[in-house]
Amino acid sequence: MTLTPSRRTHPTVRFPAEWESHRATWLAWPHYRDDWPGKFEPIPWVYAEIIRHLARHERVELIVNNATNERNARKVLDRANALSGNVRFHHWPTDRVWMRDSGCTFVKCGAGAPARENWKGHDSSRADAVIKKKGSSTPDTRLAIHWRFNAWAKYQNYKQDGKIGGLMAKSADAQVLQPIFGKRQVVLEGGSIDSNGHGTLLTTEECLLSKVQQRNAGMKREDYEKLFSKFLGIKNVIWLGSGIAGDDTHGHVDDVTRFVAPDTVVTAVESNSDDPNYEPLRENARRLREATDHNGKPLAIVELPMPGPVIFEKRRLPASYANFYIANGLVLVPVFNDPNDRIALDILADLFPDREVVGIYSGDLIWGFGAMHCMTQQQPL
Questions:
Q1: Residue-wise over 138-147: b if at least 16 C-beta within 10 A, else e?
Q2: Ordered structural domains, the chain, with CATH
Q3: Digit-coded pLDDT (tens) for 22-48
Q4: Hey, which residues are catalytic here?
């Protein structure tokens, strides 16, 4: 079965879908030039374009390393007509800017939520929590899951990014939960999971179960399912196979398949049978056809084409239209000057008729191995 029910749930804890109302979007201003070697100069202007659109619809919480970085960011934003009162600056040092992965995951806690001591109780999942804020959960408690971040088990410079989730949670006045497996804080990135807001979650085996770039040694499929149940209120986990070629995260789901409604997903497909993405994406589609939603009903599946291969310095880059970001009244979509750009934008416009769908040229941005979804993290109302 590709849809596996978790045995233990907390119905009062819920991982909201991305299309639900946001209080803000979190971003970090680009500064690490080695993420875009030889192509850094246009990156701040791409960020300015993204912020210009976002700030018309919701607050932007913008992380800058220091006062000098804020002055530089303000100059760029002002020139791009993107500076407004809806942009709020935070002086926190970062190693990189991929907030989807280094930031915390905000969840909602409803009436009758488990009290503080119950979050820490031992059970068969071996996934306990360290509470980082005093007091008990109440019906209006904001919760932030602060996963451990280790730079996708690949890079060495992540100590500053590892602190960002906690800083975000404190700024949002949220109670911080740090899930523990065995004796270690659980490593997880936001790009590896996607929620429909009703207890169903998408992820991939390549990212969470592979020993390549292994996040949590000893954690098995059932351990992750219990973890998601306890801390995200997940009832069903849909396990896809692999991510796309060129993805240095080793299989993030936000490049391949995304929920766009509680019972509907878009999934990337490759039409060229000679492309390395062809078979893995076909396998993901097959698994989706066998899966069900939170009501036990088949999913509605919408195919989203892949752009043609984006290659720079002989390296395949993880270009995908599935890396879009859903904001209040807005969907930001990476585009690549490809014939399929228009097709992808039209598909997403049909799926989000009440939102403005905006293409953001990402041919330079993707040299950093990420796009719209990788760089953003939503804070729900």
A1: eeebbbbbbb
A2: 3-380 (3.75.10.10)
A3: 999 999 999 999 999 999 999 999 999
A4: 374
